[in-house]
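Entry 12.
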Amino acid sequence: FLSLVWEDARSSGGFGASSSIENNGGVIEMAKIRVGVLNDMCDGPPPVGDITPWLEREVAVVQATGRLNAEVEFVPAYGLGLPTGSAEAVTRAYTELATQPDIVLIAGPAIGDNALILTPLVEHWRVPTINWAGAERARGEWMFHLQVGSHEDESLVIARHMKAIGAKRLG
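Predicted 3D structure (tokens):
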């Protein structure tokens, strides 16, 4: 996936990373890959809801297979977005990552309102960004959406589960 995103971005004038990448028979070779991690649930360390340990674990799995021969650096940015923070905070944090040289991908945001706010900004900066928010409209050419549910379907899933376990009412 990373090699496809990289080649698409380079050929279409996307993000301005200066590193080189080679895809040798499915093996990604690069000196260092910098991935931004946007945390929209707090305004600084220690991070709330930090996904970096999960990302590190999965990168280690890929590296152990020999398909990735590069160091991966995770670069954090914090911006307490909506609903308790502000659109400005999450916009500032995203821009901080998107304007850094050699950031090839940004993971985040997690909150639906923030993903909707950032989608036009992601399209402007043209840095591949993956959100996992409950906002199915937070998608674009550069904003990818890892669908883990949505506000539209979660209530039905919960209602079906409650019926399956024999619950007649809540409260």
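Annotation: Helices lie at 2-12, 52-65, 87-98, 112-125, 151-164. The beta strands are 22-24, 27-39, 68-78, 103-107, 129-131, 143-145.
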